[in-house]
Amino acid sequence: MNIKLVDKKISDIDSEILVEFLTKDELPNHKKAKILQNAGFKAEQDTTCFLYEKATLFCGIESKKSDDVRSAASCMIKMLKSSNYKSAKMSVIGKSTLSALVEGIVLGGYEFNEYKSEPKKAALEEISFAIDDFELGELETIFNEALIIANATCYTRDIVNRAPQEINPQTLAHAAQTLAYDNSLLCNILQEDDLAKENMNAMLAVGRASVHGSALVHLAYKPANPKKVVTLVGKGLTYDSGGLSLKAPTSMVTMKMDKAGACAVLGIIKAVSELKLDIEVHAFIGAVENMVGGNAYKPDDILVSRSKTTIEVRNTDAEGRLVLADMLDYAQEKVDADYIFDFATLTGACMIALGQYTTGLMGHSHKLKHDISRAGGDSGEMISSLPFNRHLKKLLKSEIADISNTASKPYGGAITAGLFLDKFIKDENKNKWMHFDIAGTAYTESPWDCNVYGATGAGVRLMCAFLREAK
Ligand code: BES
Ligand code: ZN
Ligand code: ZN
Questions:
Q1: Which of 66, 199, 210, 453 has the smallest count of CB within 10 Å of its CB?
Q2: Catalytic entry in 89, 321, 369, 461
Q3: Which entry of 228, 247, 334, 423 is annotated as an active-site residue?
Q4: How far apart are CA 93 and CA 142, in angstroms?
């Protein structure tokens, strides 16, 4: 489907269907108010009314704010895709909401049909945005950049949605390599023998029972005079069975999405390189599969991590933090960054604490939390801070090693996981680091907002919003 910005008034565009967004306040004064009222249309948010004879689709909208526009655009595109019309036109609602309109259409209209033998093909081929009274120049950049970010989000979704027999640590590394080639990024891949030389024993332990070798991927985007240097680290568990602390059957379903942190990091570096931002970005992904077998790592094992911190394994299902411990240590040594952000589907507890719609944000710097929240405000992704405290930190104490991989009490599990990662952040980097727990937000089995069934691409829009503002 092609979406284009047209330097014309809406009435001068030739399309099969006209789309109009209407608020409750606008409805009574609309020239088709009577017919719409008879049809039972009240212009409520996320409702639609198709007047086929008038070739017009009306979409209810609470207000003309970004969140409402994005959600209404998602409903609109689903409705259009279920029809047999080939083309539709609409006015850009406003300059400040054009990005949300594009995101709603691209992300709400996203479908992952890779494994369907007969995928339904929508008839819709083209959507035209009439610029009406705006200047083309003032909308073009916003439009193009919104498309880059939405498409990068779909790229992330596509990898997360792929089945675990297809995406394993090696094929995930290969996907990263392809991205590096396509977008002219630097790429370095460490295989298991390299990881052993790097003493990344915590990460290696997690992947030991897998038939697929673990891999570390480092991609870099280096513009000439970067304003900032940013390190991104992603949890790339291509499957999390729980290991010997095996997950219950129902909890194991969807665990192909445990690679969503790594895929988000790939989507972010893709977007940043296409937006040509003046920010140097380093993307590190830890690609590992957590399986069972005779050589699996065990509860009671003591792991000597890359940083020499010893870890008592009490639960092999708390594997993401072990991978990230070594990844964060490696990334901090390789790059002297202004910001270090990790993205991980780390804990079910984060979902319990915040619900499925909000990403958990953890770290030491109140200023950085505030800056990320402000920049991400209109991105369509919700984040909330989960605060560290010294009492929760004590729950990670081990009687036999430097730290335990599970807290002694279950409450505050998202925060204790964040505090485990903190143990591997060097003192000089404490205020540069932020941990994003996307366990709830990365994947959904019931559509919400512009998120359809499956992977959401959580992290991509949020980080792009922050990095575009980073000075
Ligand atoms: N990958 C899971 C976390 C997860 C759960 C992500 C549900 C998405 C949805 C993680 O590796 C895990 O299993 N965490 C455990 C930690 C516990 C053993 C301390 C959890 O959350 O139960
Ligand atoms: Zn796990
Ligand atoms: Zn996991």
A1: 453
A2: 321
A3: 247
A4: 13
Q: Please, which residues have CB less than 5 A from ligand 3, an ion?
A: 237, 240, 258, 320
For residues 191 and 283, give the distance between their C-alpha atoms in angstroms, rounded to a whole number. Answer: 17
Cα–Cα separations (whole angstroms), residue 324 to 42, 232, 233, 319: 50, 11, 8, 9
Whether 247 is catalytic: yes
Q: How many C-beta atoms lie closer than 10 Å to residue 348's C-beta?
A: 14
Whether the pTM exceeds 0.90: the reply is yes
Beta strands in 241-338 (DSSP E): 279-290, 302-304, 310-312
Q: Which residues pair with 281 in a beta bridge?
A: 221, 230
Q: Which of 347, 350, 386 to mutate to test the pocket of ligand 1 (most atoms within 8 A of CB)?
A: 347
d(CA 40, CA 20): 16
CA distances from residue 149 to 104, 271, 287, 422 in whole angstroms, order as listed? 12, 6, 24, 30
- State phi, psi for 448 to the nearest 5 degrees: -150, 145
Among candidates 70, 77, 63, 56, which has minimal Cα distance to 3? 77
Whether the Cβ atoms of residue 429 and residue 339 lie closer than 8 Å to each other:
no
Radius of gyration of the chain (CA): 23
Helix, strand, or coil (residue 126): strand
**Distance from the alpha carbon of residue 29 to the mean position of ligand 1, in angstroms:** 52
> What is the CA angle 94-22-97, rounded to 5?
20
What is the C-alpha to C-alpha distance for residues 189 and 206, in angstroms, rounded to an integer? 18
pLDDT tens string, the chain, 471 residues long: the values are 999 999 999 999 999 999 999 999 999 999 999 999 999 999 999 999 999 999 999 999 999 999 999 999 999 999 999 999 999 999 998 899 999 999 999 999 999 999 999 998 999 999 999 998 899 999 999 999 999 999 999 999 999 999 999 999 999 999 999 999 999 999 999 999 999 999 999 999 999 999 999 999 999 999 999 999 999 999 999 999 999 999 999 999 999 999 999 999 999 999 999 999 999 999 999 999 999 999 999 999 999 999 999 999 999 999 999 999 999 999 999 999 999 999 999 999 999 999 999 999 999 999 999 999 999 998 999 999 999 999 999 999 999 999 999 999 999 999 999 999 999 999 999 999 999 999 999 999 999 999 999 999 999 999 999 999 998
Determine contact, residues 229/338, Cβ cutoff 8 Å.
Answer: yes
d(CA 231, CA 233): 7
Q: How remote is the CA of residue 437 from the centroid of ligand 1, in Å?
A: 11
H/E run at residue 160: helix 136-161
